[in-house]
Amino acid sequence: MTDSDMPHAARPEAEAVEVSLEFLSRLGQAALDPIIVSDARGCIAYWNDRCTECFGWAREDVLGKRIHDLLIPKRLVPHHLSSFAKSIVIEGPPPKRYVTHALRRDGTEFMVELSIIHMTIGSARFPFCFVRDIDAEKRHEAKLREADDKLAYLARLNAMATMAAALAHEMAQPLGAAQNFLSIALMERDHPAHEALLDCRSALGEAAQSLASIRGLVRKGGAVPDVVALDEVLNDVLRVLSAQSQSHVRFEMGSCAHLVWADRIHVEQVLTNLLRNATEALQSRTDGQVAVTAETQGEQLVVAVDDNGPGIPEERWPTLFEAFRSTKSENMGMGLALSRVLVERCGGRLWIEHKNGSGARFCFTLPRKTIMTAPAGGTS
Ligand SMILES: Nc1ncnc2c1ncn2[C@@H]1O[C@H](COP(=O)(O)OP(=O)(O)OP(=O)(O)O)[C@@H](O)[C@H]1O
Ligand SMILES: [Mg+2]
Q1: If 48 and its partner were Cys, which of 28, 63, 163, 361 is the partner (CB 3.0–4.6 Å)?
Q2: CB neighbours (10 Å) of residue 86?
Q3: Which residues are 125's β-sheet partners?
Q4: Ranges for the Histidine kinase domain (predicted)?
């Protein structure tokens, strides 16, 4: 039997290792993915060119260095070391495949999928690690998920708008009829429930106006502005809220005697939403306070609604005005989204602002009624 006829196992160990490493080196240079081979101590013994492209380290920088010193984010090192130690003592551990984070030479992290197999060359164990950079793929997936969420959100919004328009349409007729029946009943001046019927008619009137306002929102074009006295609207809103609210909230009204150009119902709905939110945030307190103030800023009036409740963490601010973001079990999360649309329809803006002390502060602007903006023949 010549030397070349001898089976591998019979060759001297050094020669077997050399042949294996030569074989690996050729294979590794042709591979499309990074391949890292370490020794039983976790020091890098082999590093193909794809590794350099992926991690940024040249071969001479890494050979003999420990994997966890260069390629693994610090927080993952303890876990890596313990699972490496476990796998190296097992005889012939099964191949392992998993997704984790890796570290580039410039310190940036990226996602990789690893496939690890232990090979015995001669009498030594070498864990082989095949690396796949899946960072771009994962980011693409996250973007797709985000787009899916956005689409689902828009679909819900659309369904909501359709439902609101249908409701506004369907309710208009019975509401009108109920108002007419009440008017007939009210002709009888000494009716025993005359006062209650009057209240009933005015409540129905408000409901009909709100529905008309919703229909107006769905129609194209902006709101038709009218001169609105802010303090009058605020008084109406506070009267209704105080009647509804069981809590101990104290409402304060600052200098709100200003005239603005707006749709009265829109302003009423915005104030109602903001004040109701503040009241709901103060439900469990006995010293709850809500203050409404207004100040002029050039052509604009800035209205602020302040409360001394728990406030809203700043990380929630970017999505606060999106629909369906409620933290309340009974609510839909439409108030702020709708309010922003209503204010913008009137030519203003609505935002949340930092405030001194605890609580939330919402502000919105409306165009002031000045001599400049008064329509021809109008009074200022
Ligand atoms: N003044 C406030 N204090 C604390 N949290 C608030 C305040 N205003 C709004 N929020 C938070 O913002 C979320 C969204 O408010 P929004 O008015 O849009 O919806 P909602 O009040 O939950 O439901 P809806 O208004 O449809 O009844 C609330 O669920 C609440 O978590
Ligand atoms: Mg609300």
Answers
A1: 28
A2: 10
A3: 120
A4: 166-370
If one counts every other C-beta atom within 10 angstroms of the C-beta of residue 27, the result is: 11
d(CA 297, CA 310): 29
At residue 349, the pLDDT reads: 96
φ, ψ (nearest 5 deg) of residue 232? -65, -45
pLDDT digits (tens, 9 = 90+) for 141-170: 999 998 888 888 777 777 777 778 778 778
Span 247-285, pLDDT tens digits: 678 888 888 889 999 988 889 889 999 999 999 999 888
pLDDT score for 7: 44
State the distance between the two ends of the chain, measured CA to CA, in whole angstroms: 116
Per the prediction, the chain carries an average pLDDT of: 86
Residue type, 3: D
State the pTM of this model: 0.62
Atom of ligand 1 nearest to the CA of 325: 14
Phi and psi at residue 44, in whole multiples of 5°? -70, 125
Tell me: the pLDDT tens digits for 196-219? Answer: 888 888 888 888 887 877 777 766
> For the residues of 162-179, what is the DSSP string, one character each?
HHHHHHHHHHHHHHHHHH
Dist. CA 149–CA 284, nearest whole Å? 34
Strand partners, 253: 292
Position 133: which residue type? D
Strand 289-297 relative to strand 250-253, pairing: parallel
Residue nearest to atom 27 of ligand 1 (CA): 331
- The ligand whose atoms approach the alpha carbon of 328 most closely is 1
Taking CB atoms and a 6 Å cutoff, what residues make up the pocket around ligand 1?
A: 273, 277-278, 281, 307, 309-310, 312, 320, 325-328, 331-337, 360
Q: What is the pLDDT of residues 34-79, one digit of tens each?
A: 999 999 899 999 999 999 999 999 999 999 999 999 999 999 999 9
Residue 278 contacts residue 290 (beta carbons within 8 Å): yes
Tokens 């007939």 correspond to 184
Total residues belonging to the chain: 380
What is the CB neighbour count within 10 angstroms for residue 226? 14
Tokens found for residue 32: 């499309």
3-state class (DSSP) for residue 118: strand
